[in-house]
Amino acid sequence: MSFRVQLGLALNLIVFATVLNSVGIVVERSISDWGIPKTVGGTLEGCKDLTIAFTSLLLASQVPRLGYRRVMMGGLAAVGLICLLLAAVQQFWTVPLLFIVCGASFALVKVSVYATVGIFARDKAHHAALMNRLEGIYQVGALLAPLVFSWMIARGNWINTYWFVAGLAALALGLWVFTPLREDSGDGSEGKKSGGLADVKGLLARPIVCIFLLCAAVYVMIEQSIGTWLPTFNIDVFRLPPEKAATLLSLYFGSVALSRFVFGFFVRRMSAFVLQLAYLSCAFGLLVTVLLLSRGAAPPQGLAYVLACVGFFIGPIYPTLNSMMLSQLDKSLHSSMTGLIIVSSALGGTIGSQILGAISQHYTTHAAFHFPLLPIAALFVLLILFHGQEKA
């Protein structure tokens, strides 16, 4: 894989991560600036995730026919244009439209990125390394978003962040214009035509695929529900100013990115399965500790930094699971499998965010943050089942 291709894939992920992981800040700012109810704020996650799910289900298997490079360029162009619209209009009706357009584009671009990894990966170990590296880069983009938003909030207009995102999308698009991409695997699998829904049905008939998809949905339920509502939690519970709450969201995504980059070091010395269970146990314990210590009327603000670090203990699970699943399949099935991954992930993220939003609206944000403990425990059990199927 050439440097320009790697840079192009990295810029793709950074652009989409910057937009899609700004939901938590946009929810809090929309509640504050436009007075929308928290339940409406929770629907913004759905605008993104349900669009991702439907687009993946309907079009993922067609991406190889359209061409990976062409799909990535089209997705970047769409994101750039919708960001320009929001930055120029600065009204709430453009916000759901932003997440719908970005969700649809991301669904197709992610299929292209995953398929490109499958083309260039030399073996399973190389595939896992590339997946963790790219998902780590995605989290760097997620880290970048709160920093830019925090800087813009401090200067009085958070929506100006989208001028920056539009420029970043234009830079990535320009790179792909001058970057060729080999779109065949070199092993003959490119000659196998995708069976579309037939491939999907065949994959869903495998027990290991069904367990894996549950793992993916539950993982994203944890990561996105926390990420979406973390700024609101820090403002409501710790009484932090909005710009500091945005900065702490960056720390959360940064901890996820760091864990994905360092996971490769640990996995060479320990079983990935054992590491995943250990990481989840730490995440559960850390979240319980923060919730217990923040019950008072004036909890110590230092706990906000501890809470943000929960991302470190969940970060590597998702890309490692994706790599383990994709590495077991013929490359001709990667597009269909990636579509299923995106659908299950999107549904998990939407459900988690909606539940947290509903609990926050009817009770308190502090009470709502007890919810992620349930999917963390569920994922622990599902990982054991997945490992059993993998060995069978």
Q: What is the overall pLDDT average?
A: 84
- The gyration radius over C-alpha positions equals 20 Å
- Oligomer description: single chain
Q: Characterize the biggest β-sheet.
A: none
The outline comes out as globular
Order of helices and strands: HHHHHHHHHHHHHHHHH
Q: Strand fraction band?
A: under 5%
Helix percentage range: over 70%
Number of helices, counting only DSSP H or I runs of 4 residues or more: 17
CATH superfamily: MFS general substrate transporter like domains
SS-derived structural category: mainly alpha
- What name does CATH use for the topology? Growth Hormone, Chain: A
Number of domains: 1
* Low-pLDDT residue spans: 187-195
- Termini separation (Å)? 34 Å
Known CATH architecture: Up-down Bundle
Total strand segments: 0
CATH level-1 class: Mainly Alpha
Polypeptide structure, described:
It is a single chain. This protein has one domain: MFS general substrate transporter like domains (Growth Hormone, Chain: A, Up-down Bundle), CATH 1.20.1250. The relative contact order is 0.16. The longest helix is centred in the middle third of the chain and has 31 residues. It is 78% helix and 0% strand. Helix 7 packs antiparallel against helix 14 and helix 12 runs antiparallel to helix 17. About 2% of the residues have low confidence. The chain is mostly helical and 392 residues long.
Which properties best describe this structure?
78% helix; 392 residues; globular; 17 helices
